[in-house]
Amino acid sequence: xxxxxxxxxxxxxxxxxxxxxxxxxxxxxxxxxxxxxxxxxxxxxxxxxxxxxxxxxxxxxxxxxxxxxxxxxxxxxxxxxxxxxxxxxxxxxxxxxxxxxxxxxxxxxxxxxxxxxxxxxxxxxxxxxxxxxxxxxxxxxxxxxxxxxxxxxxxxxxxxxxxxxxxxxxxxxxxxxxxxxxxxxxxxxxxxxxxxxxxxxxxxxxxxxxxxxxxxxxxxxxxxxxxxxxxxxxxxxxxxxxxxxxxxxxxxxxxxxxxxxxxxxxxxxxxxxxxxxxxxxxxxxxx
Length: 287
Prior knowledge:
This protein is of the alpha/beta class. The protein folds into two domains: 3-221, P-loop containing nucleotide triphosphate hydrolases (Rossmann fold, 3-Layer(aba) Sandwich); 227-270, no CATH class. It contains ten helices and 13 strands. The strands form three sheets. A six-stranded mixed sheet has the order 6-7-8-3-9-10, with helices on both faces. A four-stranded antiparallel sheet has the order 2-1-4-5, with helices on one face. Strands 12-11-13 form a three-stranded antiparallel sheet. α6 links the parallel β7 (154-158) and β8 (186-190). α3 (92-102) crosses α4. The longest helix has 18 residues, at 166-183. It is globular. The relative contact order is 0.14.
């Protein structure tokens, strides 16, 4: 496991943000961490990256204890925040050089890491341009490039596609997939874009009311929510869950045959991840 969390607690002024939270994340996975506003996602990621302390509980990252091995965990982890985390008046290369030096990279090692980060995020054409001149998509890619400098075993990405166009978003998602595939990097991905999580992640957890209310492999979650939607010629529709309503499905097809009902179209699919999410967390506004 890349991350193992047992009975993690965090409160602010007696308000519980995380309560006896348990979570395990496999090495090499792209893990989607979902939750409505105020659910505790940011708090959890901040604890894992030493930005805030936990109250109590056990956290291990690649076998290292969060309380005892901070330096070891920091050396194999990288956090890419939602905000831009670079100097706008520096070029791509200058930013990478600066942050690489902060990681303690020197000479040939620093040069190799910068070359890799530029290639991984396709920033070759922009290495000598100041970052403030970039489009939103390029700024997001530079954010990720900086996050790759220390060759992390685990990479935290917090809303990495906010505010960019669909083409740039799809490109960044493929960059993330390639990083995971080529380096076997464990990626913790938080986003409010459910279609991104469905496209990218192989396991999903939903955090709400300070606890993990669901953790499951994406394929198994989709299978359990598979649907058949039948549209009749009179434009009425019938939706049936393949897994849970098998007997109902059999009865419906028997009824169709017996009553000679006319079918216009049959769709085979599944509930969207957004539908599943709203069903679990309810649809109340979270401010």
